[in-house]
């Protein structure tokens, strides 16, 4: 059993997929997604052409290409101070924090899939607190990066981040590569997340669905306490609407709304995972797990260290999966 705090985060509500038998099929006629994507692509191309034509008409010259992006974090082991420019509550206990990069041509420097480290030392602290986070902004975003941070009672870093004021500085270091991704590395991936564990999963999803050459199918199983704790819900729904043949999301809530056909009441169970996961040994598939310690213990077993995945245990082992089938973020 997980602790009651095992699944918590925040999100807005929209349509989602109810859990039922036979959900391993991705039911949309072949070509429907392609049509939708093509229509959107043509519309964007048309808008870009119109904008470029207007710019040329009004200025007499074509838009200048952007200079090369400059990585902020280069893996050189150096801490870099970045300034907080915006904060926004996205739930009662979760904030989006935006940090300015050194210039408008800088990007974060993160790769897929990687994270960064944050460091803070309070006036009465004997040593600094260091915690990993995965930004939710795109790796190609210039000028800033966003963190989504849930405040945990007694958590020194999350408390400090929530207490920060605009224009304060925070130290960052990285990136730390977690799982190197290449297009079509797996045919199907399943992302089992709890609470803020969705952020590295979202980084992976973003990379897959922003690359037209990557045809990987993605299933998400996302556990939280309540509907308001679901982080990145709008983004997940958008992916499901855009790629119905390749993307499915299932929500598990300790306190599901009454008669909510889109969410399952309770915790992530063996019966649930047996329904949504591909069969063990059925193909080039991978399962990713990220969440609080109680979730790791129940689903896959905990990591021994950032560099040591540890042995596979818990529900996934009981279902017949092997250590090679699973990656623990």
TrEMBL record:
It is a single-pass membrane protein. Its cofactor is FAD. GO terms for molecular function: cytochrome-b5 reductase activity, acting on NADH. Residues 77-182 form the FAD-binding FR-type domain. Keywords: FAD, Flavoprotein, Membrane, Mitochondrion, Mitochondrion outer membrane, NAD, Oxidoreductase, Transmembrane, Transmembrane helix. One of its GO terms (cellular component) is mitochondrial outer membrane. InterPro entries: CBR-like, Cbr1-like_FAD-bd_dom, FAD-bd_FR_type, Flavoprot_Pyr_Nucl_cyt_Rdtase, FNR_nucleotide-bd, OxRdtase_FAD/NAD-bd, Riboflavin_synthase-like_b-brl. GO terms for biological process: ergosterol biosynthetic process. Its EC number is 1.6.2.2. It holds the Pfam family NAD_binding_1. This is NADH-cytochrome b5 reductase. It comes from Sphaerosporella brunnea. The lineage of its organism: Eukaryota, Fungi, Dikarya, Ascomycota, Pezizomycotina.
């Amino acid at each position: 059993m997980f602790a009651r705090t095992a699944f918590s985060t925040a999100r807005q509500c929209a349509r989602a997929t109810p859990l039922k038998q036979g959900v391993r099929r991705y039911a949309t006629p072949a070509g429907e997604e392609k049509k939708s994507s093509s229509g959107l692509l043509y519309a964007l191309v048309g808008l870009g052409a119109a904008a470029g034509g207007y710019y040329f008409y009004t200025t007499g010259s074509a838009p200048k290409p952007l200079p090369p992006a400059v990585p902020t974090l280069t893996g050189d082991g150096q801490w870099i101070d970045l300034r907080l420019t915006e904060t926004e509550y996205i739930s009662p206990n979760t904030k989006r924090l935006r940090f300015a990069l050194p210039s408008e041509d800088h990007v974060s420097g993160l790769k897929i899939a990687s994270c960064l480290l944050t460091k803070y030392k309070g006036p009465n602290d004997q040593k600094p607190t260091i915690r990993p986070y995965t930004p939710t902004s795109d790796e190609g975003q210039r000028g800033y990066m966003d963190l989504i941070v849930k405040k945990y009672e007694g958590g020194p870093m999350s408390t400090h981040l929530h207490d920060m004021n605009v224009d304060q500085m925070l130290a960052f270091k990285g990136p730390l590569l977690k799982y190197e991704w290449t297009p079509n590395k797996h045919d199907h991936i399943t992302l089992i997340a709890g609470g803020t564990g969705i952020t590295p999963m979202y980084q992976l999803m973003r990379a897959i669905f922003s690359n037209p050459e990557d045809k990987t199918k993605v299933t998400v199983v996302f556990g939280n306490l309540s509907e308001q704790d679901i982080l990145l819900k709008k983004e997940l729904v958008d992916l499901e609407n855009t790629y119905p043949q390749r993307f499915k999301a299932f929500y598990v809530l300790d306190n599901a709304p009454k008669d909510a056909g889109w969410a399952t009441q309770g915790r992530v169970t063996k019966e649930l995972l047996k329904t949504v996961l591909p069969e063990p040994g059925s193909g080039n598939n991978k399962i990713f797990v990220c969440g609080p310690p109680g979730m790791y213990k129940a689903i896959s077993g905990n990591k021994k260290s950032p560099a040591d995945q540890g042995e596979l245990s818990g529900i996934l082992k009981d279902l017949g999966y092997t250590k090679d089938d699973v990656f623990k973020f």
